[in-house]
Amino acid sequence: MTRPRRRPSPSWRAFLESHVKDLASIDFFVVPTIRFRVLFVFIVLAHARRRIVHFNITEHPTAQWTAQQMSEAFPWEDVPRYLIRDRDHVYGPAFKDRVKHVGIAEVLTAPRSPWQNPFAERVIGSIRRECLEHVVVLNERHLRRLLTDYFEHYHRWRCHRSLDMDAPEHRPVQEPEHGEVVEVAEAGGLYRHYERRAA
Predict the structure, then answer these.
(1) Which domains does the chain have, with CATH numbers?
(2) What is the pLDDT of residues 163-183, one digit of tens each?
(3) Residues 137, 113: Cα–Cα separation, whole Å
(4) What is the per-residue burial (b if ≥16 Cβ within 10 Å, else e) of 110-138?
(5) For the segment 90-137, what is each residue's pLDDT rounded down to a tens digit?
(6) Whose CA is closest to 123, among 79, 170, 162, 171?
(7) Using CA atoms, how far apart are residues 126 and 141, in angstroms rounded to an integer?
(8) Which of 28, 29, 105, 118 has the least C-beta neighbours within 10 A?
């Protein structure tokens, strides 16, 4: 007898594409300071428009602190259906209880498989390449200001191929009658964008 062919299960990529509006990712990355302190940056990324919903910085991440960040990221009814995260021990019982209480299903990546959380890994890479590799971080307050400026630029002006070269916050196309194209420096010249402005 021949074995009946089972219908193949959907791939990880198919899952991400079909649920993109219901997905959010979380991850930590570390930033050393000039005094050799290690700061942990926690980010929450909504997949639909690649928006960084929330970020915070700490020297000592705990499950309770991380759970509080989820409450701050999604304070009202607007919570994602799925939350993609890795298997780090910082996501302990306090974190799991908070996420379950607000009705979010956790999707855990396989061990040592950062490619299964591609959107978070990609945005962390962008933060490093476009911001942190060009400055020396002095302290937590300095890092918070740098990231706030970067995220302002990221949301309003940074183009994404996945968004048809639009920014996470949609902006209308500027017609030639709006004026000449000018270069605008942001964050003390660390970033630049171009827009039309009337003379």
Answers:
(1) 12-173 (3.30.420.10)
(2) 788 888 888 888 888 888 888
(3) 29
(4) eeeeeeebbbbbebbeebeeebbeeeebe
(5) 999 999 999 999 889 999 999 988 888 999 999 999 999 999 999 999
(6) 162
(7) 21
(8) 105
